[in-house]
Amino acid sequence: MNIKNILISHGFTAKEDYQNIYINIYSALKKAILAKAIHDNIKLPPTRILAKDIGVSRSTIIKAYDLLVLEKYVNPKIGSGYYVNYSKRKKIKSTIGVNFKLGKHPKISKKGLSFQKNFQIINNSESDLGIAFRPGLPPLDVFPVTQWKKITNDYWKKVKSSELSYSNTTGIECLKENIANYLKIYRNIDCSSSQIIITTGSLHSLSLISDALIDKNDEVVIENPTYPYAHNLFKSLKAKIFSASIDDEGMVLKHLNCGNPKLIYTTPSNQYPTGVKMSLNRRLELVRWSSLKNSIIIEDDYDHEFSNWENPIASIFSLDKQERVVYLGTFNKLLHPSLRLGYMIIPYYLFDTVTALYQQTSRFVTSSSQKILSTFIEKDYLNKHIRRVIEVSLERKHIFINSFSENFEKHIEINEENSGLHIIGHLKEEINDKKLSDFFKIKGITAHPYSLYFIEGDKKNGLIMGYSSVNNKRINETIHKMKNELDDFLNLKK
What we know:
single chain, alpha/beta, Arc Repressor Mutant, subunit A, Aspartate Aminotransferase, domain 1, Aspartate Aminotransferase, domain 2, four-stranded antiparallel beta sheet, 18 helices
């Protein structure tokens, strides 16, 4: 069975949009199964072999197979592989033993189709790859598990049955007060706890604010390059997007040819992914510009603690006197991503709308997690942990840069100025960063393609790598492995 020819004859094309190629493969396989070009009970090619045959990553094939499994066209057998299962899929009976004819399903909503169309995952299937060198992860191995466990045990020993009921949608008061105090001390942000809403993280916060403000064709300004999930969200909401380039002072506004954008999304403390810190003058310019344009600024304070601990610049929120700034923060980068706990400070005029959206969609973060984190902050564990994380991250950054520079001097140039939890490696040769990223992924190494972070214009070629989540020994081992794999990749190109 020549699966590649079967795929091509049923609609597969390697020229398909790169991010949606798994949909193309899934669709071609489904058509082939329905047309009986692939017979029932036939074993599909192993994911690695099919990936190699058609020139895509193994994770792309896995996603296509998983969709077929979900729709019961394919049956996975542990230790054996994937088998076509269509004949069993057709034999559907009702629970009362009466045969019935399959009806049509309702159409997917326009909003649902828009989100599906713009769905783009930079870190696809990385949970199976380990953590080297996934960007955005803190030093997970230094998280104070013992302290967290003790607080958790104490909570469950003392909790009252009445506390197990539904809690306030916007968050429990003790945590919001502790976050307000934390921000006052470490960010010089003066806000009321009543302005704070607890979320699962920055993307959740951004989604709530966007749903509250964005209608189709509303103008939005975002940085270029930018956080891909933010870009995808605005595209899915069918906003009219204007991109602002980044210079050595941050977001450039003077060349924007837009009207009155509703939202301006920025990561000023550590621009993601370039690592540029927005200057104080540029922050003041942005505040003035937003006032003239009647806009709301979303200040995503990404990696602030890792980039601005010693010499912090005033937050945009603290410079604003007209309630034009929504401030996003998260503990998922400071502690660990599985915590799923973030927050935002919002202008009062948005509070009722955002609360209503929250309560009718995702509800709230568990009160037990909020209470435990609140105690963790109260006991000064967070302050001590941040200092430890910064110390470890700086040490690992130094080791990563030295080892990487020694091994990749001819092919990749490191940007040492980036002050967050990741490093950008600029490719010196005509190497496609997406193909190289996929090649590394097959080998169990994570390195995000830099070009996918650009909205338009000159898309730079490079790799974005997180260095802080793995220990010193693992850093050196993985870099040596990358060097060997890069040599194999370059030989394959010849």
